[in-house]
Each structure stands twice: as C-alpha cells, then as structure tokens.
Design a protein that fits this description.
Layout lengths: L1 H11 L3 H7 E8 L4 E2 L2 H9 L4 E12 L2 E12 L3 E12 L2 E8 L10
Parallel strand pairs: 1-6
Antiparallel strand pairs: 1-2, 3-4, 4-5, 5-6
Helix pairs in contact: 1-2
C-alpha cells in the first residue's frame, strides 16, 4: 500500500517527477476518456488534465499485486461536483505497472 499511497500523493501534489518515478517503464493506463501506452504519455496527460479534485470516501481491497481503490472524486476547479470511481492498480515490486480507471464518463462535468 505504500506504493499506492505514494502514487496518489504525487498525483495530488502535481509532483510529476515523483509520479513518473513510481511508474514502471512499461506502465499503461486505461480510462473511460483516455488511454496511455507509456508512463511518459500518462504523466503528460495528467499535466494537461483540465479538472482539479481529490479522492474522498476511499476504500481499498488488496489481492497480491492488485489493489482496487473505490472512491468519490470531489472536483474543485474549474467546476465542482462528485463522481464515483474505481481504480484497479497493478503493482510490480515497488512501482505501479498499470492502472484501469472505471467511471461513468457521461456524468463527468466539463469546464464551460
């Protein structure tokens, strides 16, 4: 769980260098609105994310190298709102190998 905590802390702090250091070189991300096939692509995509927010009401389930994080993403800028999400993270050693993020993309507010 330390790696997962570091992953979310780096993301929340917009510490892109630290976030990249937590990802394996073959990291992949799949989400409802974006897919990234490399860690550098992912970090650049997260830098460009137009919404700010934080996970609240987090619940974690761990099964070996798999961690599932169920949470509500509380958006704070430039729009406000909440959306339920579930992220499946696969670990490799002390790094994140992949992330799959599930949510209803139609419920996602868009900046005006």
């Amino acid at each position: 769980m330390k790696t997962v905590s570091s992953f979310y802390e780096a993301f929340g702090a917009k510490d892109w260098k630290r976030l990249r250091s937590i990802l394996t070189d073959d990291f992949t991300f799949q989400g409802s609105l974006a897919t990234f096939d490399s860690p550098d692509e992912y970090v650049e995509g997260m830098k460009a994310l137009p919404l700010e927010g934080e996970p609240v009401d987090s619940r974690f389930a761990v099964d070996g190298t798999n961690v599932v994080h169920s949470f509500t993403w509380k958006m704070t800028a430039p729009v406000t709102g909440e959306i339920d999400m579930c992220e499946w993270i696969e670990l490799e050693g002390d790094k994140v190998r992949s992330s799959r993020l599930f949510y209803d993309s139609q419920a996602m507010p868009t900046p005006g």
